[in-house]
Amino acid sequence: MPAHIAGTLHATPAPVWLPYPDDVNALLPSLWSDNVTKTDDGVLTIAGHSVTDLAEQYGTPTLVMDAADFRTRAETYLTTFTSAFSPEKGLAGADVFYAGKAFLCTAVARWVHEAGLGLDTCSLGEMMIARAAGVPGDRVGLHGNSKSVAELEYALDYGVGRIFVDSLDEIIRLEAVAAAKGVFAPVMLRVTVGVEAHTHDFIATAHEDQKFGLSLADGTAARAAQMVADSAHLRLDGLHSHIGSQIFDISGFQVAAARVLAFRAEVMAEHGIDLPDVDLGGGFGIRYTSQDTPIPVAEMAEELAAVVLKECRGLGTNVPRVSIEPGRAIVSPAVFTLYEVGTVKEVSTDSGTRTYVAVDGGMSDNIRTALYDADYSCTLANRASGAEPAIVRVVGKHCESGDIIVRDEYMGADVTAGDLVAVPSTGAYCRSLASNYNHLPRPGVLAVEADRVEWIVTPEDHSQMFATDPGMVGGEQENR
Fold first, then answer.
1. How many beta carbons lie within 10 A of that of residue 25, not counting itself?
2. pLDDT tens, per residue, the chain with 480 residues
3. Which residue in 152, 114, 163, 153 sits closest to 135, CA to CA?
């Protein structure tokens, strides 16, 4: 993108990677869930339900989930990795843990468990959702770099199967909690392997200068292994590594796996123990726009299996059971956000006219564009356009110039107030990071299947949003 004195947001309206569409009304299938299509008159449908009907009955903005697609993606990850790491191929099996931080509610936790996946959590609240959904504790993992005593106590009472230790302080804290309860705490050490994923700095988590993990390079991981091995109340079950998010290059995973397995061999030799589990994390990229090139699930599984087998043979160790943690890769493609257009504005720039399409949501339901410089696509959802394609920028209604949802996309030039716009691949981190900025209620999540439509997260109303303000009653000022 060409440089501009006021920054990249003000550069040319047409980025070089964005192809001019042959048909501005057509969907790019790889950006949408399996059961989303368009009718001949341009109306977006999901599992046979039109978004015009959904908008009329349930309102906008709304996150709309293709429930069958979500379950299919979860099952695909499990069957693919189970096959790739099967004992028949010389490996010890694989587990898939859904990363709940991407998006979690009781329905999703239940679907994940029913599909045979475990569930990763990173807070007391997420563990409470898992428990309420009926997920057994031994199928739950607890992550986090600053776990409280209350969270550790709850995890042990729940019977959580994996506690990912992130610091030396946490080892001391967890040992005290486990000793007080007279139980063993199952520990996985999160190690920092020094692999920097080719991604945004804020979501690349395995290089040294960041808050997560126990460093291999400076010996902290080795000290942590010693402390856990010497503890009377901690059981060292394995190692964990996570190198970032939205990753399209498998080489980072391969290098990280090799380093983790080498450290595993050192720990087993030094302490005379077996480490049966290795968790290689998540971060598998998805397609938000036509420029994204995610790694196919089968290729990823086979490549990682080959690395694990090769490295363990070279090290002379037994092969561990391997687990992975997809979150975004399962839930994001299964969801789109449905908005209604409020205003359309054409603005003259140094390089042409830019059309701003403002909708009834924004950074309160999708902060990722502002936070991570993320790119999204979109489509006109309630009708077919007969106009020429034009570059638009879909923006929200918040009082921020950075309130952008879709930075650049082609839409019919006749987009107007009252139209519906759908943004695909919003299942991960959009609702999870949603806020009440400018006192907008957070949107709900609508699960859609051929035979049913239901809220799995209900939309907030103003009375719920104002419940924490003592000066407000039912959305009205108490004293006027």
1. 18
2. 333 334 444 445 678 889 899 999 999 999 999 999 999 999 999 999 999 999 999 999 999 999 999 999 999 999 999 999 999 999 999 999 999 999 999 999 999 999 999 999 999 999 999 999 999 999 999 999 999 999 999 999 999 999 999 999 999 999 999 999 999 999 999 999 877 665 444 444 445 666 888 999 889 999 999 999 999 999 999 999 987 778 888 888 888 899 999 999 999 999 999 999 999 998 888 999 999 999 899 999 999 999 999 999 999 999 999 999 999 999 999 999 999 999 999 998 887 788 999 999 999 999 999 999 999 999 999 999 999 999 999 999 999 999 999 999 999 999 999 999 999 999 999 999 999 999 999 999 999 999 999 999 999 999 999 999 999 975 455 444
3. 114
- Reply yes or no on whether 312 is catalytic: no
Q: In b/e form, how buried is each residue of 320-340, taking b as 16+ CB within 10 angstroms?
A: bbbbbbbbbbbbbbbbbbbbb
For residue 75 the two structure tokens come to 């099952």
Crossing angle of the two packed helices 220-230 and 250-271, in degrees rounded to 10: 40
Catalytic option among 105, 378, 399, 430: 399
20 backbone dihedrals φ, ψ, rounded to 5°: -70, 130
